[in-house]
# Entry
Amino acid sequence: MKTAIFATLACGAAAFAPVNQVRSTTALNAAKGKAKLQYVPCISTADLPKPGSATSGVAGGLAICIAVDPKGAVYALGDKCPPVNQPLSFGKVDKDGTIADPVLGTKFDLKTGEVVSWCPTGLGKLIGGLFDPVGVPVYPVKAKG
# Structure
């Protein structure tokens, strides 16, 4: 009986003893210094979508949405649409300089990637209410061949 009580006390005390933990982080261990802008090919100019629409491509291992506004300006944005990561390239490019998520209706500014309207549809209000509004990354575009 004394052994059982001693074992219980030892285990209870061990629960409060300091433990060495390995610190983990999601930060990349990139070299310090100024980032170098490097253009990588995504799609050919012959494959650009018609004005007012978008298509998808891959550049540097990233899924990219290539959008062309009704005036013919070309934009590159991240193709993962928050909050549930459906392809933004399936969205509709509007005359107001935005692209709309095809499922939840969120509108993103083509130039900045910032949210203009967060999940305004019925299903979007339900799902979008669980998440904070977050934009998509934008990338510089250069036409070459």
Q: What stands out?
A: The chain has two helices and ten strands.
